[in-house]
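CORE FACILITY INTAKE
Project code: CF-77B
Contact: R.S. (postdoc)
Sample description: multi-component assembly, two entities in total
Requested service: structural model of the whole complex
Turnaround: standard
Below are the sequence entries exactly as provided by the requester. Do not edit them.
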Amino acid sequence: MTKHNFGAGPCILPKEVLKLASESIINFNEIDLSILEISHRSQDFINVIEKAKKLVIDLLNVPNNYSILFLQGGASLQFFMSALNLLKKDQTAGYINTGSWSKKALLEAKKIGNVEIIASSEEKGFSFIPRNINISDKISYVHFTSNNTIYGTQFHSYPKRSKNCFIVSDMSSDIFSKKINISDFDIIYAGAQKNIGPAGTTLVIINNEVLNINSNLPSMLDYSVHVDKSSMFNTPPVFSIYVSMLTLQWLKKMGGINKIEKINDNKSRILYDAIDESNYLKGYANKADRSKMNVTFTIENDNKKKKFDEMCQHKSIVGIKGHRSVGGYRASLYNALEIDSVNVLVDIIKSL
Amino acid sequence: MTKHNFGAGPCILPKEVLKLASESIINFNEIDLSILEISHRSQDFINVIEKAKKLVIDLLNVPNNYSILFLQGGASLQFFMSALNLLKKDQTAGYINTGSWSKKALLEAKKIGNVEIIASSEEKGFSFIPRNINISDKISYVHFTSNNTIYGTQFHSYPKRSKNCFIVSDMSSDIFSKKINISDFDIIYAGAQKNIGPAGTTLVIINNEVLNINSNLPSMLDYSVHVDKSSMFNTPPVFSIYVSMLTLQWLKKMGGINKIEKINDNKSRILYDAIDESNYLKGYANKADRSKMNVTFTIENDNKKKKFDEMCQHKSIVGIKGHRSVGGYRASLYNALEIDSVNVLVDIIKSL
């Protein structure tokens, strides 16, 4: 029985990707070897990682003064690594605090140098995205989390890059879901386990201009080392990169970012409309800042709540429980989630 | 056609492991979800990682004052991370230089503090393992690479731990191949992609006594953070850990370390005997220090070399080319390589 997987990540992947991945574990590329047992230096794997990079470039229209990396350690390692590479001792980084992930990022950056919280939505439980942020001249880069999985908020416009201020964004949970203009950013990083692929690799898109700002770094934490070695400084997470390549290939085949953005707009609109029209569901996030990836809501009526839970279980809906730090519900609508699944959920909402 | 995979890593995995992994990508544990799309916080995955840890403990007889971690970044990140956690500013770490990996490790440690090369085999092309190493009182820990994949040498006895000197070992390429006494080590780390599983996770076995020596570290590089969070500080590399669990389960089922050590002894003996008995193959490593995991040799006669290559190709032997930094041949005999494959290679050697 097919489940409707609304999980927040690691999350649903396209069925055809899973099929190809499963086959390649037995016999990859018809070479009579598993994708798990080939050398990362083999031409077979080099083709995979190069294809994955090319798909990133094609799908996001990445200019050629940017490099594409597939690293390890998730966004959590990038919290530290981005600051380690960018923040000089006498400078100040500006962090926008829109939730748990932003906060974790700024705590790691504080281990490198001066950090200023230039805007925050903490006073209202991270239910909105700060606007009209003043970026003073002393700020050398601004860091923000483009989409907040836990609270269900999302930046719909971004802080502006300037000559003296770089832009760093953790896009783990909304990259590849909508158009972005790469030139507006200097470092974009994203754990794979939402719209890219399975857990185990981290995509970094980096402006070559910000390489080598700090030097003599630990090799594994130095972007320039990974750029020089084309993400092959050491053994990369072969399988996670392979499945990411398959997922990006699926995205391209189904029409790319323009197409998926329309589908995602539609999925989230249908669900938010159902929430707003119901008299027992309450959306968590400020309407203008609602995330199109993670829809957060609560049910205050215990009786309705019980019925809603039963119906979800009956209809094979999984992964809809809210994050342990906020409770309630969270329906994640990542790229691979089909509209049919959203309709099943909407029908439940309307029926109660 | 089954290939005989002598690759140095990522390397051969047991057929039954590949079969289970392939199935779980479609339907894991019969929950109608892929192992790639479940939350790492789900009970299904918690069971996997706990089982993997328990298998490490059982197979290696790990005392309960040690912690087991599954991290990311490979041994290459551990080169830096082990020094970052252990080496205080006023101390000196002692490194045994037995090849490329040792050298990379000590270069990363130098970014933290004082490093002394207390023994080296570099003068003879890393063809032997240094003996009778003097460890002076000022050395706070000794680091060594237990098996050198590139040169085909292996420590058959280890530097001794003392009250004031910890022992750190990179066992990426021979862990789980033979008995070791965990209490003789303080940190053992190993990239998974030889005897543990596929690329993408790194096993760390750490004496709790050496946690918290250095503090206020970047969270992702702090062993104590990962110990506190049971390797779930952030999203772990779910699939790599899952396949590692399957591989360790396979090892346990087939008789554990005692059994595999006998098999490995036998496999390497047969191959080394064939090399020594041939009049055209030349082993690279000093006989007493030969690795049971990576058998390195050269063929100087061009005619024989050509025939040998042809025969290997004809018999579907793959991954036998020497490392790009030394040339020649390298036959890796990891746990999952069956004796039949060794016999095929030995037959070729004898036939020429």
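Facility notes:
- The first strand of chain B starts at residue 4 and ends at 5.
- Chain B touches chain A through 66 residues (CB under 8 Å).
Invoice: internal transfer
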